[in-house]
Design brief:
Length: about 425
């Protein structure tokens, strides 16, 4: 018997998934325990890393499966999972976060910001919350999240900015990246899961979802920039604009951008994009003087998180699919929006793609709810762990609280939901 079909294994997987969710929401408490009990600070710091949570509990699940169904069945299940997305996110984070790529984007954003009728630092923040998330429809959402997080970190996510303001900015960034990838059919993971099955091409996505998402992105970013205006401008008056490092030769930039484009085009072929990544690593070593330290550690943690989600999430369809398949269109929208807070939105849309005879209205509502809710929690959308890994040092205890993120994303999520429902 397939071990994934055994009731004991399914129940165990559901319990461990629930424990992982609770652990995610409680991660910040472990950081506080690390300060309170320095003797065991290392263990508490490890348990307080949000990116570690799902990978840790996925290993517990595999061990539990080995005890219940045998080691062979447990290994067979672990090896049967598709880890392309975690590998892709790891590779694209490292390349997109490299100095030549980041410098190029920041220079373009600065040029646009100087032409806008507002202070340049504030204009850069606004563009970082609008243009970069929308760019995710071209370079994929994980790359957009990486670039936006690295751009915005020194401007917004600083210790002197109030926590509630930073959580609002984080919520806007997460929501805007989630919906900003819907202008094409390949950039957003929840769209990618259904595009081939339902024959949704990029033209269909732009007409049906894209322009609504773009409008919501602009509204969210504008409201956030208004709240941030005093903090961004005051930071600029004290320290000046964030400057990029010494210019990078155009030839080096061209190689980095070509490798990034190649990885994006080969996103579904891990052997190919890993080969390009090895070429990238060799090139960065050859021209080390034009590089900043690569974000290898942060990208590995994010990949570990997503791989854990693949293992744990793969055992939840036995209770998730009946819920998804039994809802009417409007209830499906609200249900997928709510369920996205506790599971990956790509997993939800994948389950929906397996429903035979699902109506066009239900298809739209499922995907709209999944992308609208993609900023509510760390696990709601695949790029979110990347944002957490890159921005958490700007928060108290160097940890992002799940409750704070949920509150910060509530308003932007409501705007996105209204756009998809009423436009």
């Amino acid at each position: 018997m397939n071990p994934t079909q055994e009731p004991a294994v399914q129940v165990t997987a559901a319990i461990l998934f629930a424990i992982a969710l609770i652990h995610t929401f409680a991660a910040r408490q472990f950081e506080r325990l690390a300060h309170k009990y320095p003797r065991h600070a290392g263990l508490f710091h490890l348990l307080g890393e949000v990116e570690v949570v799902f990978g840790f509990w996925a290993m517990v699940l595999v061990a539990a499966m080995a005890l219940i169904a045998g080691g062979g069945g447990a290994l067979a299940y672990a090896e049967s999972r598709n880890y392309t997305e975690p590998l892709f996110v790891f590779v694209v984070m490292v390349i997109a976060g490299s100095r030549p790529v980041l410098n190029t984007v920041m220079q373009l954003v600065r040029l646009l910001a100087r032409a806008m009728p507002m202070p340049t630092p504030l204009a850069m923040v606004w563009l970082g919350l609008t243009a970069v998330p929308l760019l995710g429809s071209v370079v994929t959402e994980p790359a957009a999240m990486t670039i936006a997080a690295l751009m915005l970190a020194p401007q917004i996510f600083r210790p002197d900015v109030p926590e509630r303001v930073k959580y609002l900015a984080l919520g806007v960034l997460f929501v805007n990246v989630s919906i900003g990838g819907t202008l094409t059919s390949y950039a957003a993971p929840p769209v990618l899961m259904v595009a081939s099955t339902w024959q949704w091409d990029s033209a269909f996505m732009f007409v049906t979802f894209g322009w609504k998402a773009a409008l919501a992105v602009v509204v969210n970013a504008t409201a956030c920039a208004f709240v941030l205006r005093r903090h961004v401008i005051s930071a600029s008056s004290r320290s000046g604009e964030t400057e990029v490092k010494a210019p990078v030769p155009w030839a080096v930039i061209a190689v980095h951008l070509a490798l990034l484009a190649g990885v994006v085009l080969l996103a579904h072929h891990p052997v190919a994009f890993l080969g390009l990544f090895l070429m990238f690593l060799g090139f960065t070593q050859a021209y080390e003087r034009h590089q900043s330290p690569l974000i290898i550690k942060e990208a590995l943690l994010v990949a570990f998180f997503l791989a854990g989600l693949v293992v744990l999430g793969g055992m939840q369809s036995w209770w998730l699919q009946p819920i998804v398949s039994g809802l009417q269109p409007l209830a499906l929208f609200l249900g997928s929006l709510g369920l996205t807070a506790i599971t990956d939105n790509a997993a939800l849309t994948y389950l929906g793609s397996q429903i035979v005879g699902i109506s066009d209205g239900s298809k739209y509502m499922l995907v709209a709810g999944a992308v609208a809710g993609g900023g509510l929690t760390v696990i709601a959308n695949a790029p979110n762990p990347a944002g957490v890994a890159l921005l958490r040092r700007g928060f108290a205890d160097e940890s992002i609280g799940a409750g704070g993120l949920l509150l910060g994303a509530a308003g932007p999520t409501a705007i996105a939901a209204a756009a998809f429902l009423w436009l």
